[in-house]
Amino acid sequence: MNPAGAAAHDPGARPGRDVALMSIGEVLAQLRTEFPDTTISKLRFLEAEGLVDPQRTASGYRKYSWNDVARLRFVLTAQRDQYLPLRVIREQLEALERGEDPIGHQRPSLVAVGSETEVAADTADTRVSRADLVERTGIAEQLLTELEQIGLVSSRPPGWYDGDAVVIVEAVVGLTRHGLEVRHLRAFRAGADRELGLFTQLLAPLVRQQDPAAKARAAETARELQALSQRLHAALVRAGLRDTLGR
Fold this sequence. Notes:
Elements: H1 24-32, H2 40-48, E1 55-56, E2 62-63, H3 66-82, H4 86-97, H5 115-120, E3 128-129, H6 130-137, H7 141-149, E4 160-161, H8 163-177, H9 182-207, H10 212-245
Antiparallel strand pairs: 1-2, 3-4
Helix pairs in contact: 2-10, 3-4, 9-10
GO molecular function: DNA binding; DNA-binding transcription factor activity
Organism: Pseudosporangium ferrugineum
Keywords: DNA-binding
C-alpha cells in the first residue's frame, strides 16, 4: 500500500493489524512531510496519552499500522488547525469509534488568529537582521529602540531577531497607527510576564524530569496553555468592546 492509502483508513478505528507494519522511524517520515515539527518523542507521548496503540514485537519494538498513522494524522491536524487539547481529541476519536459524528462533540469554538499562526510555526528557527526587521515591518528605528528598552522586543543573539519579535513588532506598528503609544504597551509586557510566571509554575514539575516523555508532555502542555490563553484574552476583549459599542 502506498502512502496515499493511509488517508483512506478510518482514524476512529482501533489500530488495525494490517500486514504492512511500519517502524516508528518510518511513521515519522510519513508524517513529517505534513507536520515537520513532529518528533519520535512526540509520537511516544501520544502513545502514552492513549491516542494511538501500536503493536509491539517480541523484542519490544513499536510497529504501526496504516490505521495508527491515520489516527496520528487526525490528532496532529486537530492540534495544528483547531488548537484542540488532547482530552477533546481523545473524545472525538472515541466518538468515531462508536460510529458517531464528532463534529460539535464537545468541540470548542475557536477564534482564528490569522497569519500569526503561520508565523508561530517556525518562530524558533526564524532569524532576521535589524535592517530586515525594519524593512519587513515598516517600524521606525527609534520606536524599535524604545520597544527594546521596555523589554517588549529583544534580539538573540545580539543583532538578530526571531519570528516572535517579527510578530510583536508587526502588532505594535498596527496598534500605534490607531494612536497607542509606547507607554501604553508596558501593560502588555506586564500582563505577559504575570501569565508567564503562572505557566512556569505549572510546567516546572514536568521540566525538571529527565524522562523524554515528560519533556514532550511539557511542550504539549505549554502549547495548550498558550492556545487557551489566547482564546481567553480574545473573548474578554470582545466582551468588553461589546459593552463599549453598546451591542
